[in-house]
Design goal:
Layout lengths: L11 H10 L1 H7 L1 H19 L10 H26 L5 H12 L2 H14 L5 H25 L24 H19 L4 H22 L2 H17 L4 H21 L1 H34 L2 H10 L6 H4 L8 H13 L12 H7 L1 E4 L4 E4 L16 H30 L1 H5 L3 H16 L12 H15 L1 H6 L5
Antiparallel strand pairs: 1-2
């Protein structure tokens, strides 16, 4: 008796959509989870596409993005060759070269998303729901932790100044909520689109939950960006104008009440204004000082002064004036110093930390770390400059920075050409509007950021950008009908 074996059928479309939907959850779980999610999504995406993957058509925007990835690889390769043959070999340069190669996984991910949606194999509607749910879940958890001192799974705040919820020691809860908040707001609006009374109440409630959660998380810049996002939403969508105005009134009342009863939050947010102005003043003062030094000292006089000097002040002593403790401004100044040494192509991905350390030396006599050039003040080292644009300028030079500006220009053109899309109240239009506002806030130039070359930040930017690049496919997709 012969028993026929049943052929196991794997639904690649379902698995591809499943791993696409779980990206917001993977951000909560951390980098290893995100990397695994990318791997599985790309794997099942390729199996789902099969021969269709050969039908890739690069439009102008994709070509520019691809060139940007190539510049990253080329710049890092040159830096590796330079260290290998002309300088002392460093293992870190080999690690950076490998990372510049593996960084192409994000471009592959972008291509797969575009192709999947082009052939109607990917449903952004499920991601819309998942992203909205994730931001609301984290918001409720952070507020719960603020009230009771622990979150729903028993985690306590990382410090007295940050309520982190599910993120534990990572102080990024406010940033996560901001990243997906407008998916939640517009999803709720869509659900109740035919019920005006319920729509007002539900949307106002969600906006206030999201805003309060970001406030108590202690992440100040995400709060400012969230408020900016509400203003953009007010300008883009006529139907939500009244809702947003009412929401802002309630948020003002809640914010004032919470801050007045919490001294730590009060100090944290009142200092934001001074620190922001302080950074601007510090950059201006540094520029003026540089010009004055150039006028007062010739190259020979500078050299003599360095030789005669037996002691170089520490960074803390150099920056002891009222605005000198602005870390972000000092990082930007340091980054510009590093960029000036390799203006065209920079030194490659994740080079800031290594290059920065070379500008300082350890003084064993005084046990201090000081900047090599005494005439320059207010310098500081870190893993990255804490600003996407400055980081790209430093690590890929003017070439990579120019490509980034071209991408930004194309995004601005997209916004102005498609203002009518944002005003319509279909789910497709809400998805595109959510992604547009989220990308504006993420790429806002005057904010402190993580590193654009880290897993979570790069994945988020690629995900949100894929909505923008695929907007035509989103509008005509059958998945929404």
């Amino acid at each position: 008796m012969i028993v026929a074996r049943k052929k196991i059928s794997i639904n690649y479309t379902f698995l591809t959509n499943l791993f696409f939907v779980t990206f917001p959850l993977s951000f909560i779980l951390g980098n290893p989870s995100t990397n695994l999610n990318i791997l599985l999504f790309c794997f099942f995406g390729i199996l789902n596409l099969k021969s269709k993957i050969l039908k890739i058509e690069f439009d102008f925007a994709l070509k520019v993005v691809f060139l940007f990835f190539l510049v990253i690889l080329f710049s890092t390769s040159l830096s590796f060759i330079k260290s290998l043959y002309f300088e002392e070999y460093e293992y870190g340069n080999l690690v950076r070269l490998v990372k510049s190669i593996t960084f192409f996984r994000f471009f592959l991910m972008l291509l797969i998303i575009q192709l999947l949606f082009k052939f109607d194999l990917l449903n952004f509607k499920y991601f819309f729901i998942s992203a909205g749910f994730a931001s609301i879940l984290v918001s409720v958890d952070v507020i719960f932790q603020f009230i009771f001192g622990f979150n729903v799974i028993g985690l306590k705040p990382s410090t007295l100044y940050f309520y982190t919820g599910f993120f534990g020691d990572e102080q990024i809860a406010g940033g996560f909520i901001k990243n997906f908040s407008f998916f939640a707001i517009l999803f709720i609006t869509f659900i109740f689109k035919n019920e005006n009374y319920k729509s007002y109440i539900a949307t106002i409630l969600i906006i206030n939950i999201l805003g309060i959660a970001i406030l108590v998380s202690g992440n100040r810049m995400p709060l400012l960006l969230f408020l900016l996002g509400l203003i953009i939403l007010f300008l883009f969508n006529d139907k939500l104008k009244r809702t947003i105005v009412i929401s802002l009134v309630f948020l003002t009342i809640f914010f004032t009440s919470i801050i007045s009863f919490n001294e730590m939050l009060k100090n944290k947010y009142t200092s934001l204004y001074h620190q922001t102005i302080g950074q601007v003043i510090l950059l201006i003062e540094n520029s003026k000082q540089k010009n004055e030094d150039e006028k007062k000292l010739t190259a020979l006089e500078k050299t003599k002064k360095k030789l005669k000097s037996g002691y170089i002040p520490t960074l803390r002593q150099e920056s002891s004036h009222v605005f000198g403790e602005s870390h972000r401004a000092r990082l930007i100044i340091t980054a510009l110093d590093i960029w000036s040494r390799n203006i065209i192509l920079g030194n490659g991905i994740k080079s800031f930390r290594m290059d920065c350390q070379k500008l300082f030396y350890k003084n064993p006599e005084y046990n201090i770390t000081v900047f090599i050039e005494k005439s320059k003040k207010n310098r500081l080292c870190s893993n990255h400059p804490h600003n996407y644009y400055i980081e790209v300028l430093t690590e890929t030079g003017i070439v990579g920075f120019s490509l980034m500006l071209i991408i930004a220009f194309l995004f601005c053109v997209f916004i102005f050409k498609n203002l009518k899309i944002f005003k319509e109240n279909k789910i497709q239009n809400f998805i595109i509007l959510s992604a547009t506002i989220s990308l504006i806030l993420e790429m806002f130039p005057f904010k402190s950021t993580g590193s654009v070359f880290t897993t979570n930040d790069a994945t988020y930017i690629i995900l949100i950008s894929s909505f923008i690049l695929s907007y035509k496919n989103i509008l005509r997709s059958k998945n929404f009908k």
